Automatic annotation (TrEMBL):
Residue stretches in coiled coil: none
Keywords: Cell membrane, Membrane, Transmembrane, Transmembrane helix, Transport
Principal localisation: membrane
Protein name according to UniProt: Magnesium transporter CorA
Length: 302
């Protein structure tokens, strides 16, 4: 457990032990239902209000470079008028980063640890969301690469790349979406701790969330447009191949038809047995093929 004490106090617990949770319960006078919730990660995001205390569960998307995918990490907030406790079930880089900066940089500490815990809550949420914005840069980079290669005739190889980026965007969006309702609930019940004077602080938190949400929505629209364009190009290429194969089949039809006619075991077969009969048949077939070719050309089918 790490603690910073100024006008207000920030308790940060990562993979908290039972003794540390008991200490926080005693310090912040946590209700028993909250204590029970902190024993293990929650399955959903939510905000609960108790006398003199707000309990908030939020999940943030973190991109894992090794697995090349996004996953949700949980941060539990215990907010009172004089202290904030953040409880995580693993080390979360942006949170550890902000805590270390507050420990080492007096100017940041003085700014963050204001007269109320509202300023600290804003700093924590803003820093985590800003970190999430940085996480989105890998998706932007991938989208730009796909956009550059889209018209280079490699539509088939683009399909798995587009699918991976689309998965990342949808995972980020799926994790982030429920946070909106929690933040609005937090804004509405913040009056119980701070009155009306700190509503703008929680409006700022919602504003930072909306900024990152707009980026995710823009990426979603962009990758879906690129996917549609790639699919259209691929379909066009397939249609062109099918068109060529169909034309070839039609042009070869005279070979099949005329050849089958001369294979019929009849008493009288025209041309058969005449001098140069093979060349005569070939000439008839060539004339039919040329005729079909001219017809297709006039119809602008080729």
């Amino acid at each position: 457990m790490r603690i910073i004490k100024e006008k207000i106090t920030w308790y940060h617990l990562s993979s908290a032990t039972s003794e540390e949770l008991e200490f926080i319960k005693s310090e912040l006078k946590m209700p028993e239902p909250v204590m029970q919730e902190l024993q293990s990660p929650s399955s959903r995001q939510k905000m609960e209000s108790y006398p003199g205390l707000l309990y908030v569960i939020v999940k943030f998307p973190i991109y894992e470079k090794k697995k090349k995918t996004c996953r949700a990490v949980e941060i539990d907030f215990i907010i009172t008028d004089s202290a904030i406790a953040t409880i995580t079930y693993e080390q979360i880089q942006p949170l550890e980063e902000l805590f270390t900066q507050c420990e080492q940089l007096e100017g940041l500490r003085q700014k963050t640890f204001g007269n109320t815990t509202a300023e600290l809550a804003e700093a924590i949420f803003s820093h985590v969301f800003t970190y999430g914005m940085r996480e989105l840069t890998h998706i932007d980079k991938s989208i730009n690469e796909i956009s550059e290669q889209l018209y280079q005739g490699v539509e088939k190889s683009m399909i798995p790349l587009i699918a991976l980026v689309k998965r990342d965007v949808l995972d980020f969006r799926r994790i982030l979406k429920p946070t909106e309702g929690v933040l609005h609930d937090l804004h509405d019940v913040s009056k119980a701790l701070y009155g009306d004077e700190k509503l703008f602080t929680f409006n700022n938190i919602i504003g930072v969330y909306e900024d990152i949400w707009d980026v995710v929505e823009n990426q979603k629209d962009t990758i879906e447009s690129l996917e549609s364009t790639n699919q259209a190009l691929l379909s066009s290429k397939i249609n062109e191949v099918m068109k060529i194969l169909s034309i070839i089949a039609f042009l070869l039809a005279p070979f099949t038809i005329i050849g089958s006619m001369f294979q019929m075991n009849l008493q009288f077969t025209p041309i058969a047995g005449m001098p140069g009969d093979w060349w005569i048949v070939m000439a008839i077939i060539a004339a039919c093929c040329i005729g079909l070719f001219i017809y297709f050309k006039k119809k602008k089918w080729i």
